[in-house]
Amino acid sequence: MNDHHFSESELHRLITIHKRHAASHKCTVSAGDYSKFEPKKDLLQKLSAFGNTIFTVYDMYSRKYLLKSEGFKIMLGYSNPPDVENDDMELFHSIIHPEDLPFVLDTENEAYDFFSSLPASEKKDYKLIYDFRVKNTTGVYMRFMHQFMVLEQDRSGKTWLVLVLTDLLTERATGDTPQRKMINLKTGRLHLFGQDDLFPAQKLLTGRETAVLILLSQGLDSRQISERLYISVHTVNNHRQHILHKTNTRNTAQALIYARRIGVI
């Protein structure tokens, strides 16, 4: 179950803060800045055609999406993607699981304050990762993982463009507690969210658990891993269970996505 509990009054407060952040953010960009970004935009569009990761670029200056993949909405089952216009945050929030919406708002509010407090030279050093459930057109909740990074800054160092990468974790979500981590990409240390502060991401798993996960990523099964590492199949399976528990995932595929995104492997 979701361990992040928020009252109705707290939800209203989080929504108010979220809207205030969006309305108050100021940065200075010109037509020339957009022209300079075009080659990067074209590259991201090409990258979005490969794999299952969805690339989105949000423009903090215009408060619109500069690059908006329809893949997210297609995954949710919308045959006509414009039916769910993701420039409309309130509409998007309406299909987030009601237990996860306060968590998402709180996470994004905390992250906004965190990035705003950083020196301009450090804003691109961090990545926010968080997951939540979204309802598809059949009423089933799917679990997605968001990665959020500062992509471009204006001439004074304020955040201008942010890159959001979205991965599908599971097509039928359970009530597992959502996770959030702020990672320093240079040091691998975790920041911001309470008990995670300054905990190295690489230490989430033990060395042996990491070795098992790497071999799983190469397509080996438990028997093959036991032969490779000279341990019993029972021990391998215990490591696999510990990996799922520590990453708060349900299967190996989810654990691999999560571990890659936070830099464990």
Describe the structure.
The protein is α+β, with helices and mostly antiparallel strands. It has 2 domains: 8-200, PAS domain (Beta-Lactamase, 2-Layer Sandwich); 205-261, Arc Repressor Mutant, subunit A, CATH 1.10.10.10. It has helices at 8-24, 31-47, 71-75, 89-93, 101-117, 207-217, 222-229, 233-247, 252-261, and strands at residues 54-59, 64-68, 126-135, 141-153, 159-170, 180-184, 189-191, 199-200. The radius of gyration is 19 Å and the shape is globular.
Strand content: 15-25%
Enumerate how many helices there are, as a single number: 9
Number of strands: 8
Query: Helical residue percent?
Result: 25-40%
Shape category? globular
* Gyration radius, in Å: 19 Å
Q: At the first level of CATH, what is the class of the largest domain? A: Alpha Beta
Question: N-to-C SSE series?
Answer: HHEEHHHEEEEEEHHHH
Keywords, separated by commas or semicolons:
265 residues; alpha+beta; Beta-Lactamase; Arc Repressor Mutant, subunit A; 2 domains; 8-stranded antiparallel sheet
SSE layout:
Elements: H1 8-24, H2 31-47, E1 54-59, E2 64-68, H3 71-75, H4 89-93, H5 101-117, E3 126-135, E4 141-153, E5 159-170, E6 180-184, E7 189-191, E8 199-200, H6 207-217, H7 222-229, H8 233-247, H9 252-261
Antiparallel strand pairs: 1-2, 1-5, 3-4, 3-6, 4-5, 6-7, 7-8
Helix pairs in contact: 1-5, 6-8, 6-9, 7-8, 8-9
